[in-house]
Design a protein that fits this description.
Blueprint: H1 8-21, E1 26-29, H2 31-37, E2 46-51, H3 58-67, E3 71-73, E4 76-78, E5 86-90, E6 105-109, E7 112-116, H4 119-132, H5 137-148, H6 157-163, H7 165-185
Helix pairs in contact: 4-5, 4-7, 5-7, 6-7
């Protein structure tokens, strides 16, 4: 793999595969998921990975990461030849707002099952960041994924109501943003 030019998806698949070989199941979350589903239209700059297996041995993860050329700097894992991306391991459980019942999407990569947030959950995650962290760019990211993956936003109505009035409003803003984007493409 060419680390100096790799995409978020390429780096995620490489690292997740190496961890998976040792029995460590992970799930890609956060902005890198947007990069994957938008096919690189959005670039995150980092990969947030949740260790989602019964094996949560930090020493084993450290050994594997070092064996594949990463150095830990603070809470980030970096490579000298991959200046544009770094990795951070996030503590489980995976949650989106008040929802802890997250079922990741499976991708078959080199005969291994790797896990990534489902597109619908990526949209929910980005909406949550938009609402709870006042991160305006996350609304754009939610729109990118919703359009690229044809996410049915009506499925998110019940969830938005459980999160409260701000989330209901954010979901409506997202619907309007998507309508606007789609109208400019026609």
């Amino acid at each position: 793999m060419e680390f100096s030019t790799c995409t978020e998806q390429e780096l995620w698949q490489y690292v997740a595969s190496e961890l998976n070989k040792a029995g460590i199941e992970t799930v890609l979350v956060g902005g890198a998921v947007v990069a994957v589903y938008s096919k690189g239209v959005y670039r995150s700059g980092d990969l947030d990975i949740v260790v989602n297996s019964y094996i949560q041995n930090d020493k084993l993860i450290t050994k594997i990461m070092q064996n594949i050329g990463f150095i830990k700097e603070g809470r980030h894992w970096k490579r000298n030849d991959c200046k544009h991306l770094f990795i951070e391991f996030i503590k489980p459980p995976i949650a989106i707002g008040n929802d802890y019942e997250i079922k990741p999407n499976k991708m078959l990569v080199n005969e291994q099952e790797l896990f990534i947030l489902h597109p619908r959950d990526c949209v929910r995650d980005r909406l949550s960041s938009y609402v709870y962290f006042a991160s305006a760019e996350c609304l754009d990211q939610a729109a990118l994924v919703a359009i690229a993956e044809n996410v049915d936003l009506n499925e998110l109505q019940k969830w938005s109501k459980s999160e409260g009035s701000e989330m209901i409003k954010a979901l409506e803003e997202l619907k309007q943003k998507i309508k606007f984007i789609q109208s400019t493409k026609n």
